[in-house]
Amino acid sequence: MGKVVMYGSVSVDGFIADANDQPGPLFDWLTGGDVPLDASGVLKVSQATYDYTRPYWDRIGVTIAGRHVFDLTDGWDGTPPSGIDHVVVVTHRPQPEGWDSDAPFTFVDGVEAAVAIAQELAGDRIVEVAAGDVGGQVLAAGLVDEVRMDVAPVVFGSGKRYFGSVQAQHLLEDPDVVIQGERVLHLRYRVRR
What we know:
Blueprint: E1 4-11, E2 15-17, E3 35-36, E4 44-45, H1 47-59, E5 60-66, H2 67-72, E6 86-90, E7 105-108, H3 111-122, E8 126-130, H4 133-140, E9 146-152, E10 160-161, E11 177-181, E12 184-190
Parallel strand pairs: 1-8, 1-9, 5-6, 5-8, 6-7
Antiparallel strand pairs: 2-10, 3-4, 9-12, 11-12
C-alpha cells in the first residue's frame, strides 16, 4: 500500500485559511514563477518548486478531504483536483442530493474507514490527506506516514489550523526535505512511530 501523506499550504504561524475560510496569499507561490506546473498554464512556479512538487503530485492516487472542503469547492464540479483519480470525503451526511454517482468520489463516515478505502483505491500510490480538521484526525489516529507543508511567508494570527484541533503531542522526525522556492518553503517530515 502507498504512503498516507498529510499535505497543505500553511502560513508561518500554522494556519491553512483565515476564520472565513479564505487562504489569502497562501497560494501565491503557485502563480509566482515561470515554469508551468500543469497543463492549464495557470499554475507557474519556480524550477525548484516544480522539481519537488510535480513528481509528488504525479504519485497521488487518492485525496481524502472533509465535507467542509468538499462544500467550499462545490465538489470540484465532480472532477477531482490536480488530476487525482479519486476523492474520499469524510462526512456524517449523505452525498449531496442530485450528485452524479458516477463521479469518482466516495462519501465515508469516519477517518479510519476513509483511509482504508483510499488505500484500497490508491494501491501503491500515495493517499493524500488534506490538512485541517480531517488531516488532524487522521494524524491523531496514527494513520499518517508523512507530513508535507508548503510554508508561505505570511502570518495570519488566527484561522483554520493546519493540524485542526489535535489535542495531543505527535513527534515527527527531522525534516528530510527543505526546499526554498519563490514565496514558499517546502518541508517534508516523516511521522515518528
